[in-house]
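Predict the 3D structure for this chain.
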Amino acid sequence: MSKRRKFLLARIDRLGDTILTTPIPRELKRSFPGCEVSVLVRSYTKDVFCNNPYVDNILVWDDFSRGTGKIFALAKFLRPYHFTDGFMILPNETLAYSFFLAGIKRRYGTSRKPYHIITGTKALVRDHEKIDKSEAEWCLDFVKAAGGTVEDISTAIYLTDEEKEKTKEIKKRLSSNGEKVVGVHITNGGSASNMPAEEYLRLLNLLKDAKNMKIVVTDNQLPEGVNIPEWVEQININKSLRQAIVNFAALDLLVSSATGTMHICGALKVNTLSLFCPLPACKPSLWGPVGNRARFIMPTLHYCATKCNNDPKNCNFNGEGGINAELVFSEINSVLESF
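Done. Predicted structure below.
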């Protein structure tokens, strides 16, 4: 009788990246009936996998900095689980040595770093320029490398029955007259190109008199000096990630830049309208949500050719050919009509 396989999926970076790995447990369970699937994540992203029927254990670890003591501590934490296979989606030295010392027989990573070579980690090398596929699909290459197959690449966050009822109550309260609930998310943590906060405030003013819409702001925190109009409800201020997920599930549409909240809505099958940079490393086909109805707004090619500094984190879409409140307002109306 073959040994039961016990998979450990480590995703130790940002929220959106973590959500894009949610198809992996489902495809592992389908490919290897009876297997065990655990995830290793940071504390602030663990709620992504709560109530996931394909995840047996959620392991939380926050310190992946370098150092012999850090490596041995993590290895000691992992060893009692007797994992047979380990997926390291983000290259990390401490993770690589810890997986080796924890006795994980089959180890997979995404690069040929020296520590991967030393530990005998199998490298799954990506070529984003030659192969155009989503980050979720790249992540699912780990399933294939382990001998499995892939049928569904869509991301998913699973609500409990209680959370589903709570979402219905929120939706009923926000759209008491049947309005479409539109969330506007202003910040993105500096992870991608985005309009300035002032432009989002202009967008809110344009939406003030929009018929059949209920507008809410979905940020957990806002920069100092950004004052949201009193008529706009801020539904996620000081909420935990899981509480915010329940609120996002009540939306009909989320308007945002390419950020983790966009991926939350994608995984909840909420419609999204997202501001994107078209650079190869940032394009929607790579970093867009997977599994929902999504539409993207991008600057013109002329804008990128003449005003782009090739650093999407410092791009605010300002200027002719960029993205502004009027363009987003027009797209919101179009999206709601088509969806």
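Residues 263 and 289 are 5 Å apart (CA to CA).
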